[in-house]
């Protein structure tokens, strides 16, 4: 295949910036989309201050960290995923390995953990002292008082495009903070939390999984790009159409945010909340963080300034007072 000068990587949230920067170096050096996507996600999984993914991820209502992850190769459409897996250092590596399996490519709970350990993946206690302090604080403020604890559901989703025009997508999350044991959201579910087709493009989502799954949002965005929409048009129309349908038919809509990229390296983002952030790098764009603001049925995008970036680091590393 003839090399294209186009390459790109886009991911949900500021927390992916370091991983996006590493993935950009790999893609610029003509490494493949698969390795770049997985590398970007492992950077997030390994950093203990990102409290919605991997090590340091926030636990369920019983204080146990259960992790979800998925990987999709947009050229072969191969998918691998894990859900409610415990004590595995990098769930994304397990998901990528499962994508090479003809059968049993989506595994959950104890079965997923047993298979991962048998394959030699690292066992690790994923509950940090800091995450446990967050848990005790939320439990005291909500469950112990008979209130709903459900806030916070950030997923890292990464899309990569390499110089051979191959695309991949990878996701990882600890899911809804204080969720019931065994709860699974959209992140490991094909078509909802992620979808990739190298002939068109890819999309990934973050927000309230229970609502994102109602619209198969990632597949819908890729489908709309395939019908001729730009990534930005596809993202905005899919997100706001789903929100409208949810409100009209279900009575409410939770947070819905997406990023997408086509196979030419053009990207888009849409959200129903203010200050949704995403990280991106392309052949024409050095690694950067962008912020979004909703305006009606459109998402306005602006670069994050240094004050915002500094405040972000201060916030995620601040002492947890129980």
UniProtKB/TrEMBL annotation:
Report the domain of life of the source organism. Answer: Bacteria
Which residues are listed for substrate binding in this entry?
A: 183-186, 206-209
Active site, UniProt feature: 155
Does this UniProt record's set of keywords contain Hydrolase?
Answer: yes
The protein's site described by Cleavage is found at 154-155
List, alphabetically, the GO terms of the cellular component aspect.
cytoplasm
The UniProt entry, under SUPFAM superfamilies, shows: N-terminal nucleophile aminohydrolases (Ntn hydrolases)
What keywords sit in the KW lines?
Hydrolase
Pfam families assigned: Asparaginase_2
The keyword Hydrolase is annotated on this UniProt entry: yes
Q: What is its EC number?
A: 3.-.-.-, 3.5.1.1
- Give GO MF terms, alphabetically: asparaginase activity
Top EC class, one word: hydrolase
Q: What is this protein called?
A: L-asparaginase
Organism in which the protein naturally occurs: Buttiauxella agrestis ATCC 33320
Q: What is the lineage of its organism?
A: Bacteria, Pseudomonadati, Pseudomonadota, Gammaproteobacteria, Enterobacterales
């Amino acid at each position: 295949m003839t090399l294209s000068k186009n390459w790109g990587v886009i991911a949900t949230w500021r927390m992916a910036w370091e991983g996006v920067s590493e993935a950009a170096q790999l893609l610029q050096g003509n490494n493949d989309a698969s390795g770049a996507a997985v590398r970007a996600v492992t950077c997030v999984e390994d950093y203990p201050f990102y409290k919605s993914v991997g090590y340091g991820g926030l636990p369920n209502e019983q204080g146990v960290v259960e992790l979800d992850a998925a990987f999709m190769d947009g050229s072969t459409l191969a998918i691998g995923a894990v859900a409610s897996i415990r004590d595995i250092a990098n769930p994304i590596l397990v998901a990528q390995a499962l994508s090479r399996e003809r059968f049993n490519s989506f595994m959950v709970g104890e079965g997923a953990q047993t298979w991962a350990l048998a394959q030699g993946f690292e066992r690790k206690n994923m509950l940090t002292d800091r995450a446990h302090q967050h848990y005790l604080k939320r439990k005291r403020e909500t469950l112990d008082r008979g209130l709903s604890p459900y806030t916070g559901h950030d997923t890292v989703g990464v899309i990569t495009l390499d110089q051979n025009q191959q695309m991949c997508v990878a996701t990882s999350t600890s899911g809804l903070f204080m969720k019931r044991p065994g709860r699974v959201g959209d992140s490991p579910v094909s078509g909802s939390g992620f979808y990739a087709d190298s002939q068109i493009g890819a999309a990934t989502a973050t927000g309230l999984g229970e609502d994102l799954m109602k619209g198969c949002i990632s597949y819908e965005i890729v489908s709309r790009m395939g019908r001729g929409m730009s990534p930005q048009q596809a993202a905005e129309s899919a997100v706001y159409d789903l929100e409208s349908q949810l409100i009209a038919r279900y009575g409410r809509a939770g947070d819905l945010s997406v990023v997408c990229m086509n196979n030419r390296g053009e990207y888009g983002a849409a959200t129903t909340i203010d200050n949704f952030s995403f990280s991106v790098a392309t052949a024409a764009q050095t690694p950067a963080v962008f912020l979004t603001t909703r305006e009606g049925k459109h998402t306005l995008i602006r670069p994050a300034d240094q004050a915002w970036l500094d405040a972000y680091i201060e916030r995620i590393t601040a002492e947890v007072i129980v």
